[in-house]
Amino acid sequence: MIYNVAQLSADQLRSLQFFESETGRTLIALSGIDAEPAPLNEEEVTRIQNLEKDLGLTLVAVS
Prior knowledge:
Layout: E1 2-5, H1 10-23, E2 30-33, H2 42-55
Antiparallel strand pairs: 1-2
């Protein structure tokens, strides 16, 4: 299972924002993706790492 930032409905967002305003805590909502990391060779790993640096993102190859 891999997790990414959840797409929230308006009601879900309001619930989280209410909690945050009441507690002063920040929440990050994640949702699961049924996927497994892909096996990569060294060249692919290097290329992905370079792409991560260029884009300023964290990337995960899945199968």
